[in-house]
């Protein structure tokens, strides 16, 4: 029996889970020798290949991702940014490359990259099975696009990946005991307000002003049985760059894409704020001095095109494709909040 | 009080040599607080020593030392009734006549349980407090009251390691408090200035393994600072030496660039922050979204639109709304601001009372010193009183014990006054227990006048 399955079986409570996890991850160099991990990594590679294939065919250009910069995305809920010393000045490791995506689409209309991100997540995230401190996003952005365009791209991309992996990775999937069902776009779309109402009917008191908590996302994802979008989040639930609908103040033109079967969030995307004065006011929501975002502000004053885009977590995608319990099973050297591992 | 201590205090509190500032300090009841810090519960009576009782003719203070520029709490009196149905009820419960010691002083405030309706107000990085911050933190924890940690402490004195041997760093203050807390009581609320946000202080706290167990227990909160009593609309102002100025030069604004101009002291300015209703609402929601396990406190300065701010905060369901009247938040405020900027505490309370009607956990601060002050703000609708300066004074005059003594004297006074009003739970005092000495004030606050 594999190490990973052994852990999953042993877990009885959070404390025990954390201890067992820590013991395993401290020796994560052993993971790659595990048969199951090899299968998972093959599926991951297939998924990445099929994503590139599809995106390239749609006219997207692959870029090399930024790793560090003077600032990074401040809109990550509860997670701390990692800092490096850059010749006596502080630089941040990308928590997401959102600011650079807006930069790129001012020159190249459709871009994507596999962007490595660091988010020093709160410690309770170690239990969720869906958070990694170090992970990769397939991050894309389209100039002059709406969030409807971005959702259209997201559902077609995901459907392509699923059917391509199901076809080319059937041996691996079979060995993993995973049955992958293909889904045809368009996927169902629910607004955040509708989802909150659905949850209330299910007896869950979801807050109409914040993101849907993880356990509730999971519950929905089980109940709906196919991939679906949650759109139109309330302002305050998301980063400053998600565009507020001019016709509906307080509502953002953004979305999450959720996997079925309880696997939760697949992608997070939005139409972007691109007007300088609006972004300035939104930046204040994080309590920061906008001066910190100097180059970004200057770029906005020069003007950037309206755009929309999203990011798909590669490890979460792998977790879904392979039917894994935890997202850390989708990396040979996983980093979890508070656990020191190679 | 010995002249030496007094002059030391003046020097410490005025930043040395500012004669105008020391005038403000002299008008503050320094002697009273120092006496409490030393004598604890005995200071509640106007005696020099215990043996004096029965031998001296005693009287209460009736006069103001100087003419008032605006209405303060001394313009309101607590007015007990003879008929006390609540006392009767308490008697039924106790099967004897109730005493003042039967008053329940503990309250829920801002998501925490406090052993008495007092919060140690958020004090920041200024040397004078930071130096005694650990003694104060330990005392607050032992006394079972929540503690605030003000702005810039982590940025100026270091997050987890001291940048100057004599100055405790941020985490020492927090862990000293949390580590000394009584079971079930207290909690810590942490402010983040624009400059602290540069290093994402809240995110750092929220992902700190040492603090995590307390976050899980619901003992940690974050406080959005919307201004400070004595200087609404102005940001933090302080003086720092060259070494510190060089270290902080990218995060704060200085009166001159420490890299180019060498001088012993630099003025360090920090920004007050820009707000609109939209920004504030989004900020609150973002906090709820990002830190679902943290309590959310707001500290508002004495702004003329404070009732709008309170209304928005009530609507967004913040855990506590702190009102800092212009008498408070004096930590290095420009003299002109101390004199002329902002509304007095009573005016803030009057405005907020009209607009929010009990839907907020209000914490009041601004020159609150004794039990009377505290019971009065409770009767006006506050859940607790925020104390800053008296804690600093008590800590300087007698360390941790001084703060504990001082708090004990308050507890005693609160129990006496509340029981005199015929009530046996501090949360029961209300505006019926108050009478203003002035008609206009009575009307403003919606309470009775002494001749009604």
Which features would summarize this protein structure in a list?
heterodimer; A: 342 residues; alpha+beta; BirA Bifunctional Protein, domain 2; 3-stranded antiparallel beta sheet; 11 helices; B: 452 residues; alpha/beta; TIM Barrel; 3-stranded mixed beta sheet; 19 helices
Number of helices of chain A: 11
Q: Can you tell me the residue ranges of chain B where pLDDT is under 50 for at least 5 consecutive residues?
A: 14-21
CATH class of chain A: Alpha Beta
> What is the rounded Rg of chain A?
20 Å
Class of secondary structure makeup of chain A: alpha+beta
Mean pLDDT metric of chain A: 91
CATH topology of chain A: BirA Bifunctional Protein, domain 2
Give helix % range of chain A: 25-40%
Determine the CATH superfamily of chain A: Bira Bifunctional Protein, Domain 2
**Strand adjacency order, main sheet of chain B:** 4-5-6-7-11-12-13-14
CATH class of the largest domain in chain B, please?
Alpha Beta
Notes on the protein architecture:
- The complex is a heterodimer of chains A (342) and B (452).
- With 342 residues, chain A is of the alpha+beta class.
- Chain A has a single domain (3-330), classed as BirA Bifunctional Protein, domain 2.
- Chain A has helices spanning 3-10, 14-26, 35-57, 98-105, 147-168, 170-176, 192-201, 214-224, 276-283, 294-302, 314-322, and strands at 61-62, 68-69, 83-86, 89-93, 110-118, 134-143, 188-191, 228-231, 254-259, 264-271, 307-313.
- In chain A, the strands form two sheets. In chain A, strands 1-5-6-11-10-9-8-7 form an eight-stranded mixed β-sheet, with helices on both faces. Chain A has a three-stranded antiparallel β-sheet with strand order 2-4-3, with no helix packed on it.
- In chain A, helix 3 packs across helix 5 and helix 3 (35-57) runs antiparallel to helix 6.
- The radius of gyration of chain A is 20 Å and the shape is globular.
- Chain B has two domains: 1-233 and 276-452, TIM Barrel (Alpha-Beta Barrel), CATH 3.20.20.70; 236-269, no CATH class.
- Chain B has 19 helices and 16 strands.
- Chain B has helices spanning 3-14, 19-26, 30-39, 85-94, 127-130, 133-143, 153-157, 170-180, 194-198, 201-206, 212-216, 242-248, 277-290, 306-316, 335-340, 345-356, 371-379, 389-420, 439-445; strands at 76-78, 107-109, 112-114, 118-123, 147-149, 188-191, 220-226, 237-241, 253-254, 265-269, 295-300, 320-324, 362-365, 384-387, 434-436, 448-449.
- In chain B, helix 14 (306-316) links the parallel strand 11 and strand 12 (320-324).
- Chain B starts with a helix and ends with a strand.
- Residues 14-21 of chain B have low confidence and may be disordered.
- The interface between A and B is medium-sized, with 33 and 37 residues.
């Amino acid at each position: 029996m594999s190490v990973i399955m052994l852990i999953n079986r042993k877990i009885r409570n959070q404390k025990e889970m954390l201890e067992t996890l820590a013991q395993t991850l401290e020796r994560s160099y052993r993971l790659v020798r595990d048969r199951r991990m090899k299968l998972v990594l093959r599926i991951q590679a297939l998924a990445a290949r099929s994503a590139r294939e599809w995106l390239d065919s749609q006219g997207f250009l692959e870029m090399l991702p930024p790793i560090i910069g003077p600032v990074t995305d401040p809109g990550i809920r509860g997670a701390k940014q990692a800092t490096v010393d850059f010749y006596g000045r502080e630089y941040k490791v990308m928590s997401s490359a959102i600011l650079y995506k807006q930069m790129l689409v001012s020159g190249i209309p459709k871009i994507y990259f596999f962007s490595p991100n660091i988010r020093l997540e709160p410690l309770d995230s170690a239990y969720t099975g869906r958070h990694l401190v170090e992970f990769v996003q397939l991050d894309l952005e389209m100039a002059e696009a709406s969030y409807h365009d971005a959702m259209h791209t997201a559902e077609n991309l995901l459907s392509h990946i699923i059917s391509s992996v199901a076809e080319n990775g059937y041996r691996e999937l079979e060995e993993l005991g995973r049955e992958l069902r293909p889904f045809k776009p368009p996927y169902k779309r629910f607004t955040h307000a509708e989802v909150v109402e659905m949850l209330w009917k299910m007896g869950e008191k979801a807050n109409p002003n914040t993101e849907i908590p993880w356990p509730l996302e999971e519950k929905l994802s089980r109940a709906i049985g196919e991939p679906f979008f949650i759109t139109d989040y309330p302002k305050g639930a998301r980063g400053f760059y998600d565009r507020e609908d001019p016709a509906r103040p307080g509502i953002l033109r953004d979305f999450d894409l959720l996997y079925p079967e309880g696997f939760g969030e697949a992608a997070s995307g939005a139409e972007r704020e691109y007007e300088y004065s609006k972004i300035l006011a939104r930046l204040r929501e994080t309590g920061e001095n906008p001066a910190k975002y100097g180059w970004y502000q200057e770029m906005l004053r020069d003007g950037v095109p309206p755009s929309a885009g999203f990011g798909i977590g590669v490890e979460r995608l792998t977790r879904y494709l392979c039917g894994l319990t935890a997202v850390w099973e989708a990396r040979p050297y996983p980093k979890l909040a508070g656990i020191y591992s190679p | 009080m010995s002249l030496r201590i007094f002059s030391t205090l003046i020097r410490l509190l005025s930043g040395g040599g500012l004669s105008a500032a020391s005038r403000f300090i002299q008008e503050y009841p320094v002697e009273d607080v120092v006496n409490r810090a030393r004598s604890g519960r005995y200071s509640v009576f106007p005696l020099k020593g215990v043996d004096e009782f029965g031998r001296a003719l005693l009287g209460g203070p009736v006069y103001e030392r100087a003419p008032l520029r605006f209405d303060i709490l001394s313009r309101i009196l607590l007015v007990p009734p003879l008929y006390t149905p609540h006392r009767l009820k308490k008697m039924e419960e106790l099967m004897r006549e109730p005493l003042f010691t039967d008053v329940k002083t503990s309250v829920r405030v801002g998501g925490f349980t406090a052993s008495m309706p007092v919060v140690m107000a958020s004090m920041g990085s200024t040397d004078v407090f930071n130096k005694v911050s650990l003694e104060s933190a330990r005392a607050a924890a032992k006394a079972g009251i929540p503690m605030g940690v003000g702005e810039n402490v982590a940025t100026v004195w270091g997050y987890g390691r001291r940048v100057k041997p004599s100055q405790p760093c941020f985490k020492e203050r927090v862990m000293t408090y949390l580590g000394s807390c009584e079971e079930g009581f207290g909690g810590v609320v942490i402010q983040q200035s624009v400059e602290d946000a540069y290093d994402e202080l809240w995110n750092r706290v929220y992902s700190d393994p040492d603090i995590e167990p307390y976050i899980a227990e619901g003992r940690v909160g974050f406080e959005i600072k919307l201004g400070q009593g004595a200087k609404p609309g102005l940001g933090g102002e302080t003086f720092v030496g060259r070494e510190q100025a060089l270290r902080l030069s990218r995060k704060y604004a200085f009166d001159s660039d420490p890299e180019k101009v060498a001088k012993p002291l630099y003025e360090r300015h920090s920004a007050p922050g820009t707000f609109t209703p939209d920004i504030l609402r989004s900020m609150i929601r973002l906090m709820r979204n990002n830190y679902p396990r943290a309590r959310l406190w707001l500290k508002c300065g004495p702004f003329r639109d404070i009732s709008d701010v309170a209304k928005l905060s009530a609507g967004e369901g913040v855990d506590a709304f702190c009102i800092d009247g212009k008498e408070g938040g004096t930590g290095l405020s420009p003299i002109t601001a101390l004199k002329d900027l902002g509304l007095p505490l009573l005016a803030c309370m009057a405005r907020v009372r009209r607009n929010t009607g009990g839907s907020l956990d209000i914490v009041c601060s601004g020159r609150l010193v004794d039990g009377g002050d505290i019971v009065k703000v409770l009767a006006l609708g506050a859940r607790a009183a925020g104390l800053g300066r008296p804690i600093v004074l008590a800590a300087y005059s007698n360390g941790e014990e001084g703060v504990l003594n001082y708090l004990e004297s308050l507890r005693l006074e609160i129990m006496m006054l509340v029981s005199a009003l015929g009530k046996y739970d501090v949360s029961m005092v209300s505006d019926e227990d108050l009478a203003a000495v002035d008609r206009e004030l009575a009307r403003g606050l919606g309470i009775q006048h002494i001749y009604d």
